[in-house]
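Transposase (Microcystis aeruginosa PCC 9807), 71 aa
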Amino acid sequence: MPLKLDNLITKNENGIRLHLYSCIIAYLILQLIDIEEGFGKSLLDKLRYLQSFMCQHISYVHWFRRIVYST
């Protein structure tokens, strides 16, 4: 699959190299993660699971609820 340079944020060599490295790292992380059977096994399913998990645990609203209701 050819790389389309129009979709990248930057077009200089260092920016493209950084973009490729970050894509490879993200791919490897998704390969290493195991999620529950109900969410699926594809890389897209794993990415969606991680996004929902991170949104749930990084949100200030959830932090506030955890602090207020845990005491």
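The longest helix spans residues 13-32. The helical segments are 13-32, 43-58, 60-70. ok done for today
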